[in-house]
Amino acid sequence: MSTSTNTRVEKLSTVIIPVSDVDGQIDFYVEKLGFEKRVDLPFGGQYRWVEVAPAGGETTIALAPPPPDKPETGNRETGISLYTPDIDGYYEQLKSSGVDVDAEISRMGDPVPPMFWLRDPEGNSLMVVG
Fold first, then answer.
1. Considering the domain boundaries, does residue 1 fall inside one?
2. CATH at residue 102
3. Which of 15, 51, 88, 126 is most buried, by CB atoms within 10 Å?
């Protein structure tokens, strides 16, 4: 019997959304989406590295300025999917607090879960599933 010595990835650590207004995005992700701010550190002289995450979640979202060679921010399909056990309640909460959400929750039926998209203040989209 052979033993593998390959190193493997154990978990997703951080996903990054390049943003131009770090403070505005912190307010959105913390105040509107209910995340907690985990990290807020200066880096590279004039920049900040900020990470937010759902309470108890392991994977964080970094809200950081883009690299100098790719200065574009906003209007990105992030590929990030969030889960809530109460999709109707969360949808109504976001909608009533002024978050840009889809006109309605999409309900395609099994095996596809109910879902909707939201956009942050810079137009980056995230999917929410229930």
1. no
2. 3.10.180.10
3. 51
Element (H, E) at 26: helix 22-27
Q: Check residue 3 and give its pLDDT.
A: 61
* Tens-level pLDDT at each residue, the chain (130 residues): 556 678 889 899 999 999 999 999 999 999 999 999 999 999 878 889 999 999 999 999 999 998 888 888 999 999 999 999 999 999 999 999 999 999 999 999 999 999 999 999 999 999 999 9
Count of domains in the chain?
1
Domain annotation covers residue 3: no
Residue 95, SS3 per DSSP: helix
Question: How far lies 74's CA from each of 56, 77, 104, 112, 126, in Å?
Answer: 27, 9, 23, 28, 12
- DSSP one-letter code for 107: -
Q: Domain range for residue 60?
A: 14-67+74-129
Amino acid at 31: E
Is residue 117 in a domain?
Answer: yes
* Tokens 């307010």, located at residue: 27
* Residue the block writes with tokens 């108890």: 56
Q: Is residue 5 part of a domain?
A: no
